[in-house]
Amino acid sequence: MVEEDLLKHLEFIQYIINRMAKNSFLLKGWTVTIVAAFFALAAQNLDIKFVILSIFPVVTFWILDAFYLRQERLFRALYNDVRKNTDIQSKDPFSLDTSPYISNVQSWPRTAVSKTLIIFYGMILVTISIVIIILEFTL
Fold it and tell me: Structure pTM?
């Protein structure tokens, strides 16, 4: 029975990890969609303000994505601990408390500038900057 409980606990944690990864993926998709919509509005109206306005959702989604990535890493640490230590089950079975792992996982600002996030959101911000410069010279 204890082994079944351990597997169920690991399933709960894995579900949360998957949900955090899905949220991160959706944020990236929304970022690209919203930036593309702002670019289309800027092209249609020949107005640079729409391109400048697209910076706000990029930064907002970057912050949210960093939050979800950090939460995912915390739950991965919990998952590994539960997987390795069956003692945890006797202390607090089915616990989803990630607070003991906060010191083991990078802080939120460090997560925000991790390779995966800085490449994705940084490239979008670079693209926005280039479009702003091009529009400044052409309008």
Answer: 0.87
